[in-house]
Amino acid sequence: MPRFILASASPRRLALLRQIGIEPDLIVPSDVDEAALAGELPRIHAARLAGAKAREVAQRHGDAVVLGADTVVACGRRILSKANHKDEARRSLGMLSGRSHTVYGGVCLIDPAGRAYERLVATKVKFKRLQERDIEDYLAADEWQDKAGAYAIQGRAAAFVRGINGSYSNVVGLPLYEVVGLLANLGIVAQQT
Hints:
Layout: E1 3-6, H1 11-19, E2 26-27, H2 42-60, E3 64-75, E4 78-80, H3 86-96, E5 100-110, E6 116-127, H4 132-140, E7 161-165, H5 168-172, H6 176-185
Parallel strand pairs: 1-2, 1-3
Antiparallel strand pairs: 3-4, 3-5, 5-6, 6-7
């Protein structure tokens, strides 16, 4: 059986895989520029980056099955990237306040023959209207750092979520149902029933 490599430095993606009993043989972060292209739609951005990450690592480890993934939080056509400082995070949370947004999860699996298997998952998330105090308390907790859209649904931001339609694990960082299906097709995990 080929080695299974997770092409991500995200501790959340690794924790999600471990949660369902999947342990990568290696974790090899990709070296891909994650900036959006001019006019790139959020769903296209997520799919493109997942594929680019998987392909970049697969070029270095051609004998393995490589999983690349990307998570994009979108408010309409606008991509809410990982905030670099509190002011950016504050703006993102203000934009999400009282609205629905979409979290796109792009997944790409490359097999040892170089074939790509891709999925794109969209999850709708509705936030309550956030008061200034909600935002400032959240920012003070520092959970916004290194998070698409400046929030972690699995943390304190769970209190902001009025509803979710779709995959919860996708919002955390990896759509597990789709990933397990792809891995099962390649014999990495047992077939789904």
